[in-house]
Specification:
The protein is 71% helix and 3% strand. It has a two-stranded antiparallel ribbon with strand order 1-2. The N and C termini lie far apart (42 Å). It is globular. It has one domain: ABC transporter involved in vitamin B12 uptake, BtuC, CATH 1.10.3470. It is an all-alpha fold and 297 residues long.
Length: 297
Amino acid sequence: MLASQPLLVGPAVFAQLLVLGVLLGSIYAFVSLGLTIIFGVMEVVNVAHGAFTVVGMYAVWFVAARLELSPFLGIPLAAVVLFGIGVLIQRTTLAPLGEEAQGNKFLVTVAFLIIIVALVEMTFTATPRQLSTGFGSWGFADVYVPEGELYALLVAAATSAVVWTFLHRTHIGRAIRGTADNRLNAAYVGIDVRRIDYLTFGLGAALAGLAGALITFVQPFDPYLGNAYLTVAFVVVVLGGLGSIRGAVLGGLLVGMIRVFGAFYLPGSYYNVLILLVFIAVLLVKPTGLFGGPTRA
């Protein structure tokens, strides 16, 4: 039985749903950003992306709960730690597999997903954690904006702008985009493709860590929460187009809107069915996703 919510709602209710959809969608988009960059450049499906977000969550929690410092200080810590982990994984396990072993690389990332989640559980236990931030909400007219989600949106938007500028306005960024367009031609013109892979995987892992850090501002978390966000990220990335940054942003916002409005109008978890129906419909019309292609804005 469908929910009894009226189809037409007042402007205040619609605006509230719209705000919540944008806030949730921005988190989904940011979680998906590192995943789509890695695939766009390296064509590696990084299943460990979910575990990277978990490390980011616990980095913020460690700074706030154990060191008793501002949780905002944990955000750059999560990025730095995950960048190092990403580069280390790429150098020691993925790069030695060579260019043609994409299936083996996929399995390696699955192994790291299991290993990292297990290590986090052993270190911090499986007990759900939550930051004691004291965040409230801000009211504008009849619309309320949760403070934690707003901070997450601002950090995600600022970081995404920095990443876009880096990819389009720096020499290394243009080398990354050139490698995404054609790895062989990039090597012919003197780009160190191996080094670009190190930087790309590190960047993707750092973005996953940042996304995990921001999730702690929004909800409780445990070592397994990254798997739920990984599933959503895959839907967002395929929906927006593998390797497309603007596709990840648009796909994240679309999924966020569907979830918020679907949860309002439909009972239980039927919004998940609606998300998958939209996902299938888009792929039937455009199999490459909304903005399929290499890493580009």
